[in-house]
Amino acid sequence: MNTAESNKANLVTVPLYRLAHGRTGDKGNISNISVVAWSDEFFPIIERQLTEEAVARWFADRRPLRVTRYVLPSIGAMNFVIEGILDGGVNDALNLDSHGKALSFFLLDFPIQVEPEISATLPDIP
Fold first, then answer.
1. CA 30, 36, 41, 44: dihedral to nearest 10 degrees?
2. How confident is the model at residue 6 (pLDDT cuts 50, 70, 90)?
């Protein structure tokens, strides 16, 4: 096993909420989800793993049409614009809760791999 494989094998998986918080808004059939790192040191970890493709896969059951990520490194944040995820929007959906507000909570469960030393310092919110 080479060094890169060994380092990857030692990583710990934690939910995104231990590294960041989020905020969501919606307009029509589009949701935007902001993810803001709790600390500057967490932002590069999140940025590497929380890609447009990863978010599209995470929300695959909602069949998003497109995911666009906007990175704001100066404030340790990113914003995801997710099109076609709200079942047509609040007025069109048969879904009981088609608002995008709850989607940030779902995204905050996204699994992020971190070094064990970092994991040991993260607060856990049961």
1. 10
2. very low
Phi, psi of 31 (to 5 degrees): -115, 145
By the 8 A CB rule, do 115 and 12 touch? Answer: yes
Q: At 75, which amino acid appears? A: I
The CA distance from 125 to 104, in Å, is 16
Residue 62 lies in a domain: yes
* pLDDT one-digit tens code per residue, 69-100: 999 999 999 999 999 888 655 555 545 454 56
Structural domains counted in the chain: 1
Residue 16's domain is classified under what CATH number?
Answer: 3.30.1360
Pair 34, 79: CB distance under 8 Å: yes
Question: How is residue 39 annotated by DSSP?
Answer: S
Evaluate if pTM is beyond 0.85.
Answer: no
What does each C-alpha distance from 95 to 55, 81, 90, 120 come to in angstroms?
21, 20, 9, 40
